[in-house]
Amino acid sequence: MEDRITLDYGSGGLKTSQLIDSILMPAFQNPILSQLGDGAVLDGNNKLVFSTDSFVVSPWRFPGGDIGKLCVCGTVNDLCMAGGTPKYLSLSFILEEGFLFSDFKQIVTSIGKEAKKAGVMIVTGDTKVVESGKGDGIYINTSGIGFQCLNLPGKLGIRPNDSILISGSVGCHGAAIMMARAGLLQEGSSLISDCQSLHLFLDTIQNAAAPGSIRILRDPTRGGIATTLNEFIEGTPLSIELSSADIPIDPSVQAACDILGLDPLYCACEGRMLVICDPESTDSILSAMKMIPGGENSTQIGTVTNNLPGKVLLRTAIGGKRILSKLSGMQLPRIC
Amino acid sequence: MLYDDFFKHPKDVSVILKRMEELTHITGPIRLMEICGTHTMAIARSGIKTILPQSIQLISGPGCPVCVTPTNIIDMVLDLSKRPNLLITSYGDLLRVPGSIQADNLLHRKASGSKVEAVYSPMDAIQIAVSHPELEVVFLGVGFETTAPGTAACILEAAAQNLTNFSVLCLLKRTEPALRSLIESPDFAVDGFLCPGHVAAVIGSDAFSFLSDDYHLPGVVSGFEPGDLLYSILELTSMIAQHQPALKNEYSRLVHSDGNPIAVQLINDVFYPIANDWRGLGHIENSGYAIKEKYALWDTWKKFSLHPALNKPNSNCRCAQVIRGTFSPTSCPLFRKICSPENPVGPCMVSGEGACAAAYQYEI
Fold first, then answer.
1. What pLDDT sits at residue A18?
2. Which residues 124-183 on chain B approach chain A with CB closer than 8 angstroms?
3. Which has the closest alpha carbon to B223: B22, B16, B46?
4. Which alpha helices (DSSP H) does A278-330 contain, by range?
5. Which of A63, A198, B175, B341 has its CA 20 to 30 A from that of B303?
6. Closest Cα of chain B to A324: distance in Å?
């Protein structure tokens, strides 16, 4: 096998088969995928949860993960946040001609490892190769199916006095990626992406919470917690009140954001869970979240009120108040 | 603990606020102006206006370099971006600034095929020029004295490397002439200035002593954390109460009285002062920088013989008055109705440091 992906590997012919047999099958071995049909026939009796996501992250390798780990976590987390235990994933690659096989293998290995960890099977997939210059090395799409284990009322279930919980420090993924992109990450830096699968959080909190007490779950990816919290209540008579002192922000994330002119509250997380639940269940849910590896810093960051309909209100470090609005466009580096 | 934590999470907020309240019994209502876009955003993000005594009013001055760049210059840049094989590099916040047509900006032009890249440093633009000899790379040199040394260093680097496919469109501005023009304007009504910490880090806090020496106005060079803002506002209020205007330096952990001599030398080596147009303030003598003849090969103005068209500002947009501190963003007829960060009309809404964007995003 050559050391680089060529257009032939996306031809659908012999080279494509070689790619599947030598790299993909060994990584994801399971009886459904090994049939190599046009689609997968799946078992199941419960209500299904279905989600899809595309991954174009640059650089594809970052502190705390790579695009392979991310493409599993991303879809697994979307399923979990919809109350589904993740079960099956599809996996589609768009590779750029010239991409190194060694890099591709590393990514595939990450996918296999994270899928195993999250308890999901890769059951169907596809590979295309585009000409050099027409892609950014590698793009991945994953779609996932899970079985519903937690019935969540969603936004309409949110009530005044509900608690808002987060499973850990915010903005780590976004800050790590931006620093890596700017070439400012040093070897051994404590700034690493929070990229992780949230399946254990879903398992645990559904056991800890009284039925109906969890209103909504969301992993605050692009736009960060500021954008996600706004989405919960915009257009409703409800508001969300946060205190900046309660929001966990790792010092390395804060320092990176200070350098780059970004706000951690708008930086993406890829392994954090926002929970809105009734006040009576807050303690038991928080205790359960803290027991999970990666959830040690879980904490309540705010409360739902109806003081300023449709808005998120932040109490600042000096006791001032301001609106926390949605991210408008992308966060751009500022001039000074 | 990071050293900055002391300023991010000041411990004695209630004591400071109480002291301010006492002082305002002596001063009566006062108006303090910040003249740095980063201060505008820091003030908005800290929510400080919601805790200050009511008689202290903070107003935003002409401190956002993106905001004071006139429309005709943006139009000229947009025209430049149409040239084949020309790549425009810029600090991010300039990419969303519309020219005379709403929503027409560099991001829009990029989506339509123009070559545009956001960079953190002018040195990144040099790197792009080195790795893409087939492209003509233009760096948009905007900013005050803060970004001027970096821009100068990059012109020197281009000259050292004899880089022929790189040039800088120098749009740099100088703070002192603009402040003098503002203070001498007939509708000026400000009692003290929060002076820009970043600019002062370069040119020194002494560069702002003309405020008290020539105009009997107090000034405090301030940092950007909530604690910095509180201490600086207290200091200004105190000087006003005692009728003892002076220039003080609250940001002493970063700012020296004579600034950064190496950075100042870089500016003087590469640039010379020229008259410049400011949105809102008009034509001001010596208020801009131009690239010296010695480095003309890296001067985009000369390289492409650029001539901006006449200015045609939107007649309803109040950015000009907002920049002079005579009009509040929320009083503008376009605010929230036609003009928003998603669809900005004027530069004060589009720039991440603009007074209108700050009011739109953060004010309750």
1. 84
2. 142-144, 146-147
3. B46
4. 282-291
5. B175
6. 6
* B27 close to B240: Cβ distance less than 8 angstroms: yes
Name the phi and psi angles at B131, rounded to 5: -85, -10
Q: 3-class SS at A333? A: coil
All structural domains of chain A with their residue ranges:
7-148, 154-323
Q: If you average pLDDT over residues B30-41, what whole number do you get?
A: 92
- Domains of chain B: which residue ranges? 1-316, 319-362
- Contact of A25 with chain B, judged by CB distance below 8 Å, is answered with no
Q: Which of B10, B94, B352 sits opposite A318 (nearest CB)?
A: B10
Which chain A residues touch B37 with a CB distance below 8 Å? Answer: 335-336
Q: Residue B352 and residue A332: Cβ atoms within 8 Å?
A: yes
Closest Cβ–Cβ partner in A315, A317, A334 for B226 = A317
Alpha-carbon dihedral angle through residues A103, A104, A106, A109, given to the nearest 10 degrees: 180
Contact B70, B336 (CB under 8 A): no
Q: Which amino acid is at B29?
A: P
Q: What is the DSSP string of B1-45?
A: --TTHHHHS-S-HHHHHHHHHHHHHHH-SEEEEE--HHHHHHHHH
B95 CB-contact burial (10 Å; exposed 0-12 / middle 13-18 / buried 19+): buried
Please tell me whether the peptide bond between A59 and the residue prior to it is cis, using omega within 30 degrees of 0. Answer: yes
The yes/no answer on whether domain B1-316 falls in CATH 1.10.760.10 is no
Longest dimension (CA), chain A: 66
Count of CA atoms in the C-beta half-sphere (13 A) of A175: 27
Quick check: B324 and B59 in contact, CB under 8 A? no
Task: Tell which A residues from 171 to 230 touch B, by Cβ distance under 8 Å.
Answer: 182
Radius of gyration of chain B (CA): 21
Q: How confident is the model at residue A330 (pLDDT cuts 50, 70, 90)?
A: low
CATH (residue range A7-148): 3.30.1330.10
B240: its two tokens: 């006003």
Mention the CATH class of domain A154-323: alpha beta
pLDDT tens per residue, range A278-328 = 999 999 999 999 999 999 999 999 999 999 999 999 999 999 999 998 876
Euclidean distance between CA atoms B333 and B313, whole angstroms: 15
Single-letter amino acid, residue A136: D
Beta bridge partners of B248: B220
Does the distance separating the beta carbons of A335 and B142 come in below 8 Å? yes
Confidence (pLDDT) at A333: 59
